[in-house]
Amino acid sequence: MSPEEEAARKAAEEEDSGGKAKKKAEKKKDGKKKGKKGKGGDDDGAAAIVKVGPSESVKLFDEFYDDYTKDWVGRNETDNYK
Fold this sequence. Notes:
With 82 residues, the protein is mostly helical. Helix content is 51%, strand content 0%. The protein has a domain at 46-74.
């Protein structure tokens, strides 16, 4: 695509979209510049809490599974098929 064709395509897109690109560019010029969001001054030097090991849902599932196996593993159901 030649540069003229690209410029014509961009102009057509701006007309179709209602000139949103121009409005955004004007807004950036007129509005305040937003500062970078970085670390705040709230850090008091304490390390963040890091959870190690399985989650609560995994622990609950393991407990449920253990209870289930205690109740049902020892069942003898061979008489059901006679």
